[in-house]
Amino acid sequence: AAGVIQSPRHLIKEKRETATLKCYPIPRHDTVYWYQQGPGQDPQFLISFYEKMQSDKGSIPDRFSAQQFSDYHSELNMSSLELGDSALYFCASSLRPPLAGITYEQYFGPGTRLTVT
Amino acid sequence: KNEVEQSPQNLTAQEGEFITINCSYSVGISALHWLQQHPGGGIVSLFMLSSGKKKHGRLIATINIQEKHSSLHITASHPRDSAVYICAVLPLWKGSQGNLIFGKGTKLSVKP
After folding, report:
1. Distance CA A110, CA A90 (A)
2. Is B92 on the interface with A (CB under 8 A)?
3. Among all residues of chain A, which has the CA nearest to that of B40?
4. Is the Cβ–Cβ distance between B47 and B56 less than 8 Å?
5. pLDDT tens digits for A46-103?
6. Which residues of chain B make contact with A35, given a CB cutoff of 8 A?
7. Are the Cβ atoms of B97 and A94 closer than 8 angstroms?
8. Which residue among A31, A37, A106 sits closest to B45, beta carbon to beta carbon?
9. Dihedral of CA A64/B41/A22/A99: which sign?
10. Is B40 exposed, middle or buried (0-12, 13-18, 19+ CB in 10 A)?
């Protein structure tokens, strides 16, 4: 079965550079979540999208922006990179439940490991 | 205090042992996930629970909504089970879909 695809898997950037991370959800999944996991930390929620609209926002820096496209893939754009942005960035996808009270599982991608030097 | 607490933080077991990892949470939830993260970093979803018990192979997950507690059990543990196991919850106030709040994980090492 198709899984969540993230690219690139590894990325090395210098301080103040920009980076773009891509997430391709499981086919027919309409919701995408982005999480950031720093070294030795638990994942923290950044931002989510449903049907190409931002649905929720977490601890995403103003230097970061994201969008979801018509084919439901999502891109996380990161500018003015700082050393502290070095982390594993996960996206997860799910279907939006048709009814309240039903919860669908989130499926995680393999992550993009970003190293800022 | 974290909304999701796991214990133990680290666990070393001998191959074949029965393992239990615990998760307690302080918020009302719509669902609880048990996730597995291998050293390479990728996260695999093991279970999603909102009540009762689920079993998949040697893995069993239980949840007690009233006590706000869940356990992940591994029977007949094997070195390939060595990974970080993460408990994550979907808070009730997020509705039936939303971002997860993660525990800090339990690092399991199973020795042959």
Report:
1. 7
2. no
3. A110
4. yes
5. 999 998 999 889 989 999 999 999 999 999 999 999 999 999 999 999 987 766 667 7
6. 99
7. yes
8. A106
9. negative
10. exposed
Given A56, A104, A110, which is nearest B42 (Cβ)? A110
**Contact yes or no for B43 and A111 at CB 8 A:** yes
8 Å CB contact between A23 and A71: no
Specify the pLDDT at position B49.
Answer: 92
Interchain pair B90, A58: CB under 8 A: no
Please report residues of A whose CB lies closer than 8 A to that of B48.
103, 105
Are residues B110 and B15 in contact, defined by beta-carbon separation less than 8 angstroms? yes
Distance between CA atoms of residues A73 and A31, nearest Å: 9
Pick from A43, A97, A109: CB nearest B97: A97
Per-residue confidence at A37, pLDDT binned at 50, 70, 90? very high
Q: What is the DSSP string of B49-93?
A: ESSEEEEETTEEEEEETTTTEEEEEESS--GGG-EEEEEEEEEGG
Interval B7-46: pLDDT, tens: 999 999 999 999 999 999 999 998 999 999 988 778 999 9
In one-letter notation, the amino acid at residue A39 is P
